[in-house]
Amino acid sequence: xxxxxxxxxxxxxxxxxxxxxxxxxxxxxxxxxxxxxxxxxxxxxxxxxxxxxxxxxxxxxxxxxxxxxxxxxxxxxxxxxxxxxxxxxx
Amino acid sequence: xxxxxxxxxxxxxxxxxxxxxxxxxxxxxxxxxxxxxxxxxxxxxxxxxxxxxxxxxxxxxxxxxxxxxxxxxxxxxxxxxxxxxxxxxxxxxxxxxxxxxxxxxxxxxxxxxxxxxxxxxxxxxxxxxxxxxxxxxxxxxxxxxxxxxxxxxxxxxxxxxxxxxxxxxxxxxxxxxxxxxxxxxxxxxxxxxxxxxxxxxxxxxxxxxxxxxxxxxxxxxxxxxxxxxx
Lengths: 90, 230
What we know:
The structure holds two protein chains of two kinds.
Chain A (H helix, E strand, L loop, with lengths): L1 E9 L6 H12 L12 E7 L4 H16 L5 E9 L9
Chain B lengths: L3 E6 L6 H11 L3 E6 L10 E4 L19 H11 L3 E5 L1 H9 L5 E3 L7 E9 L14 E8 L3 E3 L2 H9 L3 E6 L18 E5 L5 E4 L15 H13 L1
Parallel strand pairs in B: 1-2, 1-3, 3-4, 4-11
Antiparallel strand pairs in B: 5-8, 6-7, 6-9, 9-10, 10-11
């Protein structure tokens, strides 16, 4: 089994109103060096296969078709081998 | 024979009854709900994807609804030239499924906007606008993510192919940033596909049909569609 983590980021050319608003909060708190706050998504899940290539293919397709919208977002992902007994999934 | 509007019901749709009511009770057309898990369009002449928050707007607006079984049927209906209207969340679903170009971002203000706006009709030679004899129409918007965005190339091609249907404007039809409720690229409120049988718009024409609400410009769009059917 693999554990997948996917990060979906808004393309640099696309406006991120949420990031801008959060950065206003940073200024109010006095974090004056903070610049260019951008907010994305972090998604994790398990892939029930022992074949790394198959896992990669599935994660890539899932990310392309549903988790991100290629018009405004880019994604990156990583896979780590996982033994289910290591952590109880709630 | 009465024209029939099929109104798709997704989990989280909240303007489905408004659309049904406007079509059936106010305008006197036939209307039927279409359940998202079905794939039967029940011989509808026009499909309405209504407003709301399908699947809680999780992930991205419209991103999950586009994979509903009914959307397969809507997609092939549209491909065959069938008339599809996406209102608000329905517009977002049409963008996600790729029947219309572009994406929807959060309003620049980060606020939910709920007010009447004026729309300038950018193309009056379409099934949606042909019988409208006004330069602008007044209908309400109510959304948090109506900031239409497409890259320059897409916008250029939309303009060249006259696919932009409505722009936010003044009462007199002046298009300026001050009339833009959400930051949409070039004040775009509604667009069509190239074939001009699929359209999406952020404002809610179904909420401007009943005279009791003292605004009826929304009816002009639906009546125009019906006229084009016969």
